[in-house]
Design goal:
174 residues, alpha/beta, three-stranded mixed β-sheet, two-stranded parallel sheet, 5 helices, 7 strands
């Protein structure tokens, strides 16, 4: 058994690059699976995604599921409807505890929804390492809602660690 890579990318700007990467690494014998224009989410369905058009030098890093994201606002993003995948369910259906699974998550604030969902669904039994880039910007809501979102993310992280998932500090800019 060898390495397999699964790439979920919501921003349609990167669809062509995903296809090229898949072709390049497949030609080298690697197994690369791509999910272009697909939101890693808490449920299967359709999700509105707001595309950052102002940060070209930073690969449109402010694209998000949140209309309140500062780069979505700066882009006057109206939102586009994309397929969403329940990542916890997808992981549980595609991997077993004997597999070695590393998840890298840089999802512009949606980690505060997704991490507790992974914990609730017990996806930690198949995730060996979870690298989460935590974003600390305003995604809307009252101060109470923001505090609750952060508390749920902390509890979810603790539950995942308790289930055996290693969650070291992570920052892609570091």
């Amino acid at each position: 058994m060898g390495l397999e890579v699964y790439l979920f990318e919501a921003n349609p700007v990167f669809n062509e690059a995903l296809v090229r990467s898949k072709e390049k690494y497949t030609a080298k014998g690697m197994k690369v699976h791509i999910f272009p224009s697909t939101v890693a989410d808490i449920e299967d369905g359709i999700r509105t995604f707001y595309i950052d058009t102002v940060n070209k030098d930073h690969d449109f890093w402010g694209s998000s599921i949140y209309a309140e994201h500062h780069d979505a606002k700066a882009s006057n993003a109206k939102g586009t409807r994309l397929t969403s995948v329940n990542l916890a369910l997808w992981l549980l259906q595609n991997f077993s505890p004997r597999d070695f699974v590393v998840v890298k998550m840089d999802i512009e604030g949606a980690e505060y929804e997704l991490v507790p969902h992974l914990a609730q669904m017990k996806a930690g039994i198949v995730i060996d390492h979870l690298l989460v880039e935590w974003h600390h910007f305003d995604v809307g809501g009252t101060p109470e809602e923001k505090a609750l979102r952060e508390e749920k993310a902390k509890l979810g992280s603790a539950m995942l660690v308790n289930d055996g998932t290693n969650m070291p500090p992570y920052d892609s800019a570091a």
